[in-house]
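Progress report, Aim 2. The chain analyzed during this reporting quarter is listed below.
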Amino acid sequence: MSRISRSKPPFTLGHSFRNMATAALLFCSVATVSAAVIQNNYYSTDDHPGSPVSNGDLLQTELSSASRTGSPGFGNTYFYREDSGYTVDLSRLTDGSFGNTGGDSDSSIFPNHTTITFAFNLGAHPYGYSLSSIRTYAAWDSGRDGQEYSVEYSNVGTPDTFISLTSITRYNPDFDDDNSTMVQLTSSSGYLAENVAKVRFIFNGFENGGTAFREFDIAGVANVPEPGAYGLVGALALATYGTLSRRQKR
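Predicted structure tokens for the chain:
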């Protein structure tokens, strides 16, 4: 009887270390949602309800890109009146400026049934970011200051797979003058989410086809591997090297 010889795939130390590094990154990139999301609402008849907009949050310092769905036209997937001259410029939402309360200033944007996605700079911080708070500012008049949306996030292991963070309770102060609102999201314990790669906002057409959002602030910190993670990488390296050495001796 003839024997069939099967060759084993070649092992290389570099290949194994690349796999090990990938596994370690995935190990350290598991996203978690801490406790309950707390929503606080703020209202003002002048600028900056609650707190002034930030000029040093993650969207100011660590933003890689911003993208959107929705195009000019009518229906459920468009930005309000974009087809009739209202400019959609996502940089207005992260420029550190609230703008004037009434009317269409250069700081306002009008989302209908659309999404906006902010991607963080993973090149600078491959372990992602931990989010401590999210603030959304809106202002125009009593028909464009209400807020209602959902928030999702993705983690560094699967940056294009989104996880629900929360859907905010509709906030709609009813006054007949120029209004400003701010919705703030925080966690009852720890961070809102950790090891985050992207944050996505989903709008549902409220109010009157679209709210005049002025600024989005996302506060948090860049993640770095903990000493335990380095220890894990070192242990994996020693184990991999020992296995390779034994196989090579055979």
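The longest strand covers residues 129-139. The chain is about 15% helix and 30% strand. These observations will guide the mutagenesis work planned for the next reporting period.
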